[in-house]
Amino acid sequence: MGARIIDGKAFAAELRGQVADHVARLGAEHGIIPGLAVVLVGEDPASQVYVRSKGRMTVEVGMNSYEHRLEPDTSEADLLALIARLNADPKVHGILVQLPLPGHLDEDLVINAIDPAKDVDGFHVSNVGLLGTGQKSMVPCTPLGCLMMLRAHHGSLSGMEAVVIGRSNIVGKPMAQLLLGDSCTVTIAHSRTRDLPDVVRRADIVVAAVGRPEMVPGDWIKPGATVIDVGINRIDAPENGAGKTRLVGDCHYDSCAEIAGAITPVPGGVGPMTIACLLANTVTACCRANNVPEPEGLTA
Ligand code: NDP
Predict the structure, then answer these.
(1) Would you say the CB of residue 166 lies under 6 angstroms from ligand 1?
(2) Does 171 sit in the ligand 1 pocket, CB within 6 Å?
Protein backbone atom coordinates (compact mmCIF):
# COMPACT_ATOMS: atom_id res chain seq x y z
CA MET A 1 0.00 0.00 0.00
CA GLY A 2 1.63 3.22 -1.17
CA ALA A 3 -0.63 6.02 0.00
CA ARG A 4 0.00 8.17 3.01
CA ILE A 5 -2.96 7.93 5.37
CA ILE A 6 -4.54 11.25 6.21
CA ASP A 7 -5.45 10.73 9.84
CA GLY A 8 -8.72 12.58 10.37
CA LYS A 9 -8.90 11.47 13.99
CA ALA A 10 -5.58 13.15 14.77
CA PHE A 11 -6.52 16.28 12.78
CA ALA A 12 -9.83 16.48 14.62
CA ALA A 13 -8.16 16.10 18.02
CA GLU A 14 -5.79 18.94 17.15
CA LEU A 15 -8.62 21.16 15.92
CA ARG A 16 -10.66 20.48 19.07
CA GLY A 17 -7.57 21.45 21.08
CA GLN A 18 -7.38 24.77 19.21
CA VAL A 19 -11.10 25.31 19.79
CA ALA A 20 -10.70 24.61 23.52
CA ASP A 21 -7.83 27.15 23.71
CA HIS A 22 -9.98 29.83 22.06
CA VAL A 23 -12.93 29.02 24.30
CA ALA A 24 -10.70 29.42 27.36
CA ARG A 25 -9.40 32.75 26.01
CA LEU A 26 -12.93 34.03 25.28
CA GLY A 27 -13.84 33.24 28.88
CA ALA A 28 -10.72 34.71 30.46
CA GLU A 29 -10.49 37.87 28.34
CA HIS A 30 -14.14 38.65 27.57
CA GLY A 31 -16.23 36.66 30.05
CA ILE A 32 -18.02 34.89 27.16
CA ILE A 33 -18.86 31.18 26.93
CA PRO A 34 -19.84 30.04 23.44
CA GLY A 35 -23.10 28.08 23.39
CA LEU A 36 -24.35 25.51 20.86
CA ALA A 37 -28.02 24.49 20.70
CA VAL A 38 -28.83 21.20 19.00
CA VAL A 39 -32.43 20.41 18.09
CA LEU A 40 -33.48 16.81 17.48
CA VAL A 41 -37.00 16.01 16.33
CA GLY A 42 -37.98 12.36 16.65
CA GLU A 43 -36.15 9.20 17.55
CA ASP A 44 -33.99 8.29 14.56
CA PRO A 45 -31.28 6.11 16.17
CA ALA A 46 -28.38 7.43 14.05
CA SER A 47 -29.43 11.03 14.76
CA GLN A 48 -29.60 10.29 18.48
CA VAL A 49 -26.03 8.99 18.41
CA TYR A 50 -24.81 12.09 16.50
CA VAL A 51 -26.62 14.48 18.85
CA ARG A 52 -25.19 12.74 21.91
CA SER A 53 -21.62 12.93 20.66
CA LYS A 54 -22.04 16.55 19.55
CA GLY A 55 -23.27 17.44 23.05
CA ARG A 56 -20.44 15.58 24.76
CA MET A 57 -17.72 17.16 22.62
CA THR A 58 -19.24 20.63 22.99
CA VAL A 59 -18.90 20.34 26.76
CA GLU A 60 -15.40 18.81 26.49
CA VAL A 61 -14.06 21.94 24.75
CA GLY A 62 -15.58 24.15 27.47
CA MET A 63 -18.66 25.41 25.63
CA ASN A 64 -22.28 25.32 26.77
CA SER A 65 -24.45 22.67 25.14
CA TYR A 66 -28.23 23.07 24.94
CA GLU A 67 -30.08 20.00 23.73
CA HIS A 68 -33.70 20.18 22.64
CA ARG A 69 -35.31 16.80 22.03
CA LEU A 70 -38.76 17.10 20.52
CA GLU A 71 -41.47 14.50 19.91
CA PRO A 72 -41.65 12.97 16.41
CA ASP A 73 -45.06 14.60 15.82
CA THR A 74 -43.91 18.10 16.80
CA SER A 75 -45.71 20.66 14.65
CA GLU A 76 -43.88 22.99 12.30
CA ALA A 77 -45.24 25.96 14.26
CA ASP A 78 -43.78 24.64 17.54
CA LEU A 79 -40.40 23.94 15.94
CA LEU A 80 -40.30 27.41 14.36
CA ALA A 81 -41.23 28.94 17.73
CA LEU A 82 -38.28 27.14 19.37
CA ILE A 83 -35.92 28.36 16.64
CA ALA A 84 -37.19 31.91 17.14
CA ARG A 85 -36.43 31.64 20.88
CA LEU A 86 -32.92 30.29 20.18
CA ASN A 87 -32.33 33.05 17.60
CA ALA A 88 -33.14 35.63 20.27
CA ASP A 89 -31.14 33.98 23.07
CA PRO A 90 -27.76 35.75 23.53
CA LYS A 91 -26.27 32.68 25.26
CA VAL A 92 -26.80 30.64 22.09
CA HIS A 93 -24.22 31.35 19.36
CA GLY A 94 -24.81 28.30 17.19
CA ILE A 95 -28.01 26.45 16.29
CA LEU A 96 -28.06 23.06 14.61
CA VAL A 97 -31.23 21.27 13.60
CA GLN A 98 -30.37 17.61 13.16
CA LEU A 99 -31.38 16.31 9.73
CA PRO A 100 -33.27 14.47 8.40
CA LEU A 101 -36.47 15.88 9.89
CA PRO A 102 -39.66 13.80 10.00
CA GLY A 103 -41.54 13.97 6.67
CA HIS A 104 -44.28 16.38 7.81
CA LEU A 105 -41.71 19.15 8.44
CA ASP A 106 -40.38 21.34 5.62
CA GLU A 107 -36.57 21.17 5.98
CA ASP A 108 -35.87 24.22 3.82
CA LEU A 109 -38.38 26.32 5.77
CA VAL A 110 -36.94 25.21 9.11
CA ILE A 111 -33.27 25.71 8.15
CA ASN A 112 -34.01 29.13 6.67
CA ALA A 113 -35.71 30.16 9.92
CA ILE A 114 -32.34 29.96 11.72
CA ASP A 115 -30.53 33.28 12.12
CA PRO A 116 -27.78 32.98 9.42
CA ALA A 117 -25.24 34.28 11.95
CA LYS A 118 -26.05 31.26 14.19
CA ASP A 119 -26.33 28.74 11.32
CA VAL A 120 -23.27 26.69 12.27
CA ASP A 121 -24.18 24.00 9.71
CA GLY A 122 -23.90 26.61 6.94
CA PHE A 123 -27.09 25.39 5.23
CA HIS A 124 -29.12 28.65 5.32
CA VAL A 125 -29.60 30.13 1.82
CA SER A 126 -27.82 33.30 2.95
CA ASN A 127 -24.72 31.34 3.88
CA VAL A 128 -24.90 29.31 0.67
CA GLY A 129 -25.04 32.58 -1.30
CA LEU A 130 -22.21 34.16 0.68
CA LEU A 131 -19.99 31.10 0.14
CA GLY A 132 -20.86 31.04 -3.57
CA THR A 133 -19.87 34.67 -3.97
CA GLY A 134 -16.68 34.31 -1.96
CA GLN A 135 -17.87 36.32 1.03
CA LYS A 136 -17.50 35.64 4.73
CA SER A 137 -20.05 32.95 5.66
CA MET A 138 -20.67 29.99 7.91
CA VAL A 139 -19.11 27.07 6.02
CA PRO A 140 -20.72 23.58 6.07
CA CYS A 141 -18.80 21.37 8.48
CA THR A 142 -18.02 18.28 6.38
CA PRO A 143 -16.56 20.12 3.37
CA LEU A 144 -14.74 22.49 5.73
CA GLY A 145 -13.09 19.50 7.39
CA CYS A 146 -12.07 18.09 3.99
CA LEU A 147 -10.60 21.44 2.96
CA MET A 148 -8.59 21.75 6.17
CA MET A 149 -7.06 18.30 5.67
CA LEU A 150 -6.28 19.02 2.01
CA ARG A 151 -4.60 22.32 2.88
CA ALA A 152 -2.61 20.68 5.65
CA HIS A 153 -1.47 17.93 3.30
CA HIS A 154 -0.72 20.00 0.18
CA GLY A 155 -0.19 23.57 1.34
CA SER A 156 -1.49 25.42 -1.73
CA LEU A 157 -4.19 23.72 -3.82
CA SER A 158 -3.89 26.33 -6.58
CA GLY A 159 -4.15 24.93 -10.11
CA MET A 160 -4.93 21.37 -9.04
CA GLU A 161 -7.59 19.33 -10.86
CA ALA A 162 -10.31 18.40 -8.35
CA VAL A 163 -13.21 16.05 -9.01
CA VAL A 164 -16.06 16.01 -6.50
CA ILE A 165 -18.36 13.01 -6.91
CA GLY A 166 -21.79 13.98 -5.57
CA ARG A 167 -23.75 17.23 -5.82
CA SER A 168 -25.69 17.37 -2.56
CA ASN A 169 -26.27 20.69 -0.85
CA ILE A 170 -24.54 19.53 2.32
CA VAL A 171 -21.36 18.03 0.85
CA GLY A 172 -20.79 18.03 -2.92
CA LYS A 173 -21.78 21.58 -3.87
CA PRO A 174 -20.14 23.43 -0.96
CA MET A 175 -17.02 21.23 -1.34
CA ALA A 176 -16.77 22.32 -4.96
CA GLN A 177 -17.17 25.99 -3.97
CA LEU A 178 -14.40 25.71 -1.39
CA LEU A 179 -12.02 24.02 -3.84
CA LEU A 180 -12.81 26.69 -6.42
CA GLY A 181 -12.11 29.30 -3.75
CA ASP A 182 -8.67 27.73 -3.35
CA SER A 183 -8.15 28.00 -7.14
CA CYS A 184 -8.59 24.34 -8.07
CA THR A 185 -10.05 23.46 -11.46
CA VAL A 186 -13.24 21.79 -10.27
CA THR A 187 -15.51 19.18 -11.83
CA ILE A 188 -18.68 18.07 -10.05
CA ALA A 189 -19.74 14.56 -11.06
CA HIS A 190 -23.08 12.93 -10.26
CA SER A 191 -25.32 10.03 -11.21
CA ARG A 192 -25.76 11.30 -14.77
CA THR A 193 -22.07 11.92 -15.44
CA ARG A 194 -20.84 10.07 -18.54
CA ASP A 195 -17.58 8.14 -18.34
CA LEU A 196 -17.16 8.71 -14.62
CA PRO A 197 -13.96 6.60 -14.44
CA ASP A 198 -12.29 8.85 -17.05
CA VAL A 199 -13.47 11.99 -15.28
CA VAL A 200 -12.06 10.74 -11.97
CA ARG A 201 -8.79 9.65 -13.61
CA ARG A 202 -7.82 13.22 -14.40
CA ALA A 203 -8.13 14.38 -10.79
CA ASP A 204 -5.25 15.38 -8.55
CA ILE A 205 -7.85 15.52 -5.77
CA VAL A 206 -10.87 13.18 -5.62
CA VAL A 207 -13.61 13.87 -3.10
CA ALA A 208 -16.15 11.05 -3.03
CA ALA A 209 -19.52 11.93 -1.45
CA VAL A 210 -21.93 9.47 -3.00
CA GLY A 211 -23.28 7.07 -0.37
CA ARG A 212 -22.45 3.90 -2.35
CA PRO A 213 -20.17 1.42 -0.61
CA GLU A 214 -16.72 1.10 -2.22
CA MET A 215 -17.97 2.45 -5.55
CA VAL A 216 -14.65 4.02 -6.60
CA PRO A 217 -12.00 1.38 -7.37
CA GLY A 218 -8.26 1.98 -7.44
CA ASP A 219 -8.05 1.87 -11.24
CA TRP A 220 -10.10 5.10 -11.43
CA ILE A 221 -7.42 6.92 -9.45
CA LYS A 222 -4.55 8.85 -11.06
CA PRO A 223 -1.26 7.66 -9.55
CA GLY A 224 -0.30 9.94 -6.66
CA ALA A 225 -3.71 11.63 -6.37
CA THR A 226 -5.23 12.55 -3.02
CA VAL A 227 -8.45 10.72 -2.18
CA ILE A 228 -10.88 12.19 0.34
CA ASP A 229 -13.58 9.65 1.12
CA VAL A 230 -16.65 11.28 2.65
CA GLY A 231 -18.89 8.23 2.38
CA ILE A 232 -20.06 6.37 5.45
CA ASN A 233 -21.75 3.10 4.55
CA ARG A 234 -22.56 0.19 6.81
CA ILE A 235 -22.22 -3.19 5.12
CA ASP A 236 -22.55 -6.79 6.24
CA ALA A 237 -19.31 -8.32 7.48
CA PRO A 238 -19.91 -12.07 7.84
CA GLU A 239 -16.13 -12.52 8.03
CA ASN A 240 -16.34 -10.94 11.51
CA GLY A 241 -19.09 -13.30 12.64
CA ALA A 242 -22.76 -13.90 11.96
CA GLY A 243 -24.82 -10.71 11.82
CA LYS A 244 -21.76 -8.42 12.08
CA THR A 245 -21.42 -5.21 10.07
CA ARG A 246 -18.63 -2.74 9.37
CA LEU A 247 -18.26 0.78 8.00
CA VAL A 248 -16.78 1.44 4.56
CA GLY A 249 -16.42 4.55 2.46
CA ASP A 250 -17.43 5.32 -1.11
CA CYS A 251 -13.92 4.34 -2.28
CA HIS A 252 -12.52 0.82 -2.30
CA TYR A 253 -9.85 1.51 0.30
CA ASP A 254 -7.24 -1.16 -0.42
CA SER A 255 -7.15 -0.72 -4.19
CA CYS A 256 -7.25 3.11 -3.98
CA ALA A 257 -4.50 3.13 -1.35
CA GLU A 258 -2.25 1.17 -3.77
CA ILE A 259 -2.41 3.97 -6.35
CA ALA A 260 -3.16 7.19 -4.46
CA GLY A 261 -0.55 9.46 -2.93
CA ALA A 262 -2.72 10.06 0.13
CA ILE A 263 -6.11 8.83 1.33
CA THR A 264 -8.53 9.30 4.20
CA PRO A 265 -9.67 6.04 5.84
CA VAL A 266 -13.25 5.18 6.81
CA PRO A 267 -13.78 5.29 9.72
CA GLY A 268 -11.24 7.77 11.06
CA GLY A 269 -11.01 10.19 8.14
CA VAL A 270 -13.59 12.82 7.31
CA GLY A 271 -16.10 11.78 9.99
CA PRO A 272 -14.23 13.02 13.09
CA MET A 273 -13.47 16.34 11.36
CA THR A 274 -17.16 17.09 10.86
CA ILE A 275 -17.95 17.48 14.57
CA ALA A 276 -14.65 19.29 15.21
CA CYS A 277 -15.61 21.81 12.49
CA LEU A 278 -19.03 22.24 14.07
CA LEU A 279 -17.30 23.29 17.30
CA ALA A 280 -14.95 25.56 15.34
CA ASN A 281 -17.94 27.18 13.58
CA THR A 282 -19.58 27.82 16.95
CA VAL A 283 -16.50 29.68 18.18
CA THR A 284 -16.38 31.65 14.92
CA ALA A 285 -20.07 32.56 15.27
CA CYS A 286 -19.54 33.57 18.91
CA CYS A 287 -16.59 35.85 18.02
CA ARG A 288 -18.56 37.49 15.20
CA ALA A 289 -21.61 38.02 17.46
CA ASN A 290 -19.44 39.70 20.10
CA ASN A 291 -17.18 41.68 17.77
CA VAL A 292 -14.16 39.81 19.05
CA PRO A 293 -11.39 39.11 16.50
CA GLU A 294 -11.85 35.69 14.94
CA PRO A 295 -9.14 33.14 15.65
CA GLU A 296 -6.97 32.05 12.73
CA GLY A 297 -7.42 28.61 11.23
CA LEU A 298 -10.94 27.80 12.39
CA THR A 299 -12.72 28.53 9.13
CA ALA A 300 -12.11 28.59 5.37
P1 NDP B 1 -26.77 12.45 -1.16
O2 NDP B 1 -27.51 11.18 -1.29
O3 NDP B 1 -27.51 13.69 -0.81
O4 NDP B 1 -26.00 12.74 -2.53
C5 NDP B 1 -25.31 11.72 -3.19
C6 NDP B 1 -24.77 12.23 -4.49
O7 NDP B 1 -24.10 11.14 -5.14
C8 NDP B 1 -25.83 12.73 -5.46
O9 NDP B 1 -25.44 13.96 -6.01
C10 NDP B 1 -25.91 11.65 -6.52
O11 NDP B 1 -26.16 12.13 -7.82
C12 NDP B 1 -24.50 11.09 -6.49
N13 NDP B 1 -24.50 9.71 -6.97
C14 NDP B 1 -25.31 8.69 -6.61
N15 NDP B 1 -25.01 7.58 -7.31
C16 NDP B 1 -23.98 7.91 -8.12
C17 NDP B 1 -23.25 7.20 -9.10
N18 NDP B 1 -23.50 5.92 -9.36
N19 NDP B 1 -22.29 7.85 -9.76
C20 NDP B 1 -22.02 9.14 -9.52
N21 NDP B 1 -22.70 9.87 -8.60
C22 NDP B 1 -23.67 9.26 -7.92
O23 NDP B 1 -25.60 12.16 -0.14
P24 NDP B 1 -24.76 13.14 0.82
O25 NDP B 1 -24.00 14.12 0.01
O26 NDP B 1 -25.60 13.63 1.92
O27 NDP B 1 -23.74 12.08 1.46
C28 NDP B 1 -22.84 11.34 0.67
C29 NDP B 1 -22.11 10.34 1.53
O30 NDP B 1 -21.37 11.05 2.51
C31 NDP B 1 -23.00 9.39 2.33
O32 NDP B 1 -22.33 8.15 2.44
C33 NDP B 1 -23.10 10.03 3.69
O34 NDP B 1 -23.34 9.09 4.72
C35 NDP B 1 -21.72 10.61 3.81
N36 NDP B 1 -21.63 11.76 4.72
C37 NDP B 1 -20.60 11.75 5.60
C38 NDP B 1 -20.42 12.81 6.45
C39 NDP B 1 -19.25 12.78 7.36
O40 NDP B 1 -19.23 13.46 8.36
N41 NDP B 1 -18.19 12.02 7.02
C42 NDP B 1 -21.35 13.93 6.50
C43 NDP B 1 -22.34 13.90 5.47
C44 NDP B 1 -22.49 12.82 4.61
P45 NDP B 1 -27.57 12.77 -8.28
O46 NDP B 1 -27.57 14.15 -7.68
O47 NDP B 1 -27.49 12.77 -9.75
O48 NDP B 1 -28.63 11.89 -7.70
Answers:
(1) yes
(2) yes
Residue 164 falls inside a structural domain: yes
Is 15 domain-assigned? no
Catalytic residue among 121, 182, 204, 229: 121
Q: How many domains does the chain have?
A: 2
Let me know whether 173 and 261 are in one domain: yes
Nearest atom of ligand 1 to the alpha carbon of 250: 32
**Residues paired with 163 in a beta bridge:** 187, 206
pLDDT tens digit at each of 300 positions of the chain: 689 999 999 999 999 999 999 999 999 999 999 999 999 999 999 999 999 999 999 999 999 999 999 999 999 999 999 999 999 999 999 999 999 999 999 999 999 999 999 999 999 999 999 999 999 999 999 999 999 999 999 999 999 999 999 999 999 999 999 999 999 999 999 999 999 999 999 999 999 999 999 999 999 999 999 999 999 999 999 999 999 999 999 999 999 999 999 999 999 999 999 999 999 999 999 999 999 999 999 999
User: Whose Cα sits closest to atom 3 in ligand 1?
Assistant: 168
Q: How far is CA 176 from the centre of its chain?
A: 13
Residue 37 is assigned to a structural domain of this protein: yes
Do 169 and 53 reside in the same domain of the chain? no
CATH number at residue 44: 3.40.50.10860
Q: Is the peptide bond before 34 cis (omega within 30 degrees of 0)?
A: no
Ligand 1 atom closest to 233 (CA): 32
Residue-number span of the structural domain to which 70 is assigned: 30-122
Residue 36 falls within a domain, yes or no?
Answer: yes
